[in-house]
Specification:
With 141 residues, the chain is an alpha+beta fold. 40% of the residues lie in helices and 11% in strands.
Amino acid sequence: MDKYSCYMPQCPRRESCTLWHIAQQEIAEEYVFLSVTNPQLIEQAGGYSQCPKYYEWKLRRFARGMRWHYGTLTGNAEAEIHERLKDTFGFTQIGRMRRGDVVISPEEQAQIREIFEEVAPGTEPEFIAFEEHYIKPPRRK
């Protein structure tokens, strides 16, 4: 999830929603404008309990950096993994991920593990470091 906010005081799930907490931080920092989730989207989804933009407020474990070469893999398997990662995330983004310029979300880590499992069963991707955040931090410059 990129950084968005939502100020909907009538939402019953606001206290457990990341977007609400970000809006509260923006209020404290005296932002001039705040966002709301389009009420039509909420209505079409079936109400606040089904809000399509709800993102639970909890610490998530993000990876920073990823090993690119594995001595235990054959050259073909490693090349296949690299191609699948590039196809999934894009050439530029996978470069940023493996260098640690951007963190790798838990969902992205699961996708990467799935690719490894399909191409080289029993081989796990190796992430360099882990950080805990409520939302995905911005890219390093």
